[in-house]
Amino acid sequence: MKATAIVWLLQLFISFSLSWGFGAVKRSLIIPGTASSSRAEFLSSIVAASSLLVPVGSTNAFDGGVGGLGKTRPQTGVVFRDEEAAAATTQSKSGVTYELLAPDGSPAVVSFNAPWPLLQTAAGIESRDIGGGFESAFVQVCELQKGSEIKPAQLKEAIFSSKGKFGMYGSPTDIKLRLVSPQNSKSPAIYLATFTTLTPAMRESDRKAYISAKTVGNGLFLLVTTTTAVRFTKLESSLRRVAESFLVVDAPKTNLRNQK
């Protein structure tokens, strides 16, 4: 009975393959029960035939969204002043420090201190809990007109669009922002965000994030410190410390070529 079912499925597969022009599939298969067939030959022929259905091509770099999962590289707006120096940056007990460029080319020194490992990716700057993958902190940069105030609508556009780390499987929904600490000469403005994202399995995931915001030139530099809504209550104080550690200041003037 099982052998009959296998033969029937195999014949169905051949018929389907021929209808799509895969004549080579039929010729490559060995029908069980013939003198020349064996279990090994049958399995190898199935593997060879199935490989014809897999298109050959290049894939995008897997930088992914929050937690490292995503279809393509997210757009974070991060531009390093010196890419070689950035690639050599390591994490210390005091955190990490980078020199970045605002959209108008103004250089800025950006630093923060997070308890999770620093990831070296082409997508920008991120510290992530590689054990569970729930918590992370990443840098986002967008353009802000000089002298203008930071507006929640601009934060939503920069962080929660379909091109960002949270939008790899669709733009987040139910986004709510509130200011919890205003910006001053030394400290960033800090917002608390609640929102819902989609996972790779297309399931909704409720999350919360602290968003630290500071300006240099026409650049709005953001640090997004996030976890799931379920874990946020337990980790709120430690996440807030990460958000408060974010520093952004004008970089010293040098002869280093500003790269856009």
Identify low-pLDDT runs.
1-5, 12-64
| H/E element sequence | HHHHEEEEEHEEEEHE
Query: What's the shape?
Result: globular
The biggest beta sheet, please?
7 strands, antiparallel
Short summary:
By secondary structure, this protein is α+β, with helices and mostly antiparallel strands.
Structure description:
The protein has six helices and ten strands, in the order ααααβββββαββββαβ. It has 260 residues and is of the alpha+beta class. A hairpin with a 2-residue loop joins β3 and β4 (124-128). The model is unreliable at 1-5 and 12-64 (pLDDT under 50).
Task: Give structural attributes.
single chain; 260 residues; alpha+beta; 3-stranded antiparallel β-sheet; 10 strands; 25% helix; 29% strand; globular; disordered N terminus
Question: Would you spell out the secondary-structure blueprint of this structure?
Answer:
Elements: H1 2-19, H2 23-28, H3 39-51, H4 83-87, E1 96-101, E2 107-112, E3 118-121, E4 124-128, E5 136-143, H5 152-159, E6 173-181, E7 189-198, E8 204-216, E9 219-228, H6 229-244, E10 247-250
Antiparallel strand pairs: 1-2, 2-10, 3-4, 4-5, 5-9, 6-7, 7-8, 8-9
